[in-house]
Amino acid sequence: MRGAQATSLEGPPRRASHRHHLIPIAWVLLAATIGVQIAFPLTGGGTLPLTVASVVLLASASALHLAATRGFGAAVALVVIAGGGGLLAEAVGVSTGFPFGTYAYTDGLGLKVLGVPVLVPLAWIMMSWPALAVTRRLVGAMRLSGTRARVVTAFLGAYALTAWDVFLDPQMVDQGHWVWQFPDPSLPGVDDIPLTNFAGWLLVSFLMIAILDRVIGADDADAADDAVPVTAYLWTYFSSVMAHAVFFGRPTVALTGAVVMGVVAIPLLVLEVRALRSRRHGASV
């Protein structure tokens, strides 16, 4: 529906079938990510090897899925825009306090570039594509097109990506990976994480999603084609709620995150269930 508007990096409107063999590999990487993340509660929130494995596996799954469904140019764009943009934003952030607020990384996440752990831009890569993919599904269900679709995609995609950080930031702060100098005021139930952090996330995510939406072709993808990023987003939502409620000792974060990220995740789940029922009904006719 939105393929005529998008500027695809690959030229042909439909992706080449010879790349479809990469989709099962993306599924394997996502399954491995889930397996690693299931181990997080057993280690009190995760160890460095588990954290590295989780981020690298899911970032690889996102990039590989894009290569399989939109072409290798789209995967490169994700790495450059989300990874490079995330690194730039974080480097400016730790140096100036803008746009997230004043914070500092410890040595807990390993190797740093420009004062930013290498894992951090990889984390932007791993969730930017799922956030954009699910946003496109929701915007498509709204029957929007043209400029309105692009504007809504940028705003909703920024929200979808920022909402994930409601779960991520408390977990990483509790693990001692970064420290906020001025943690108040904060979201209700999300202590020690300033509102400036989420304002900064919204700004950076808006720019990131808007650019990615421009350069990564939307085309006429079948619903099943984007099952990898959709599953990644829904898994992240439900597993984060459970982890904070049951294992991490942060029930208020679980509640606030469930509401904030649920604005995207719950309608998405409803949409996916309806689409699955429709496909099964069509197959049985």
What is the overall shape? globular
Low-confidence stretches: 1-16
- The beta-strand count equals 4
Radius of gyration: 18 Å
Structural class by secondary-structure content: mainly alpha
The biggest beta sheet reads: 2 strands, antiparallel
Proportion of residues in helical segments:
55-70%
Strand content: under 5%
User: What is the domain tally?
Assistant: 1
Report on the architecture of this protein.
By secondary structure, the chain is mainly alpha-helical. The chain has one domain. The chain is 67% helix and 4% strand. The protein is built from eight helices and four strands, in the order H-H-H-E-E-E-H-H-E-H-H-H. A hairpin with a 2-residue loop joins strand 2 and strand 3 (116-117). The two termini are 25 Å apart.
Topology:
Blueprint: H1 22-38, H2 48-69, H3 72-96, E1 103-105, E2 112-113, E3 116-117, H4 119-141, H5 146-174, E4 178-180, H6 195-215, H7 227-247, H8 251-284
Antiparallel strand pairs: 1-4, 2-3
Helix pairs in contact: 1-2, 1-7, 2-3, 2-4, 3-4, 3-6, 4-5, 4-6, 4-7, 4-8, 5-6, 5-7, 5-8, 7-8
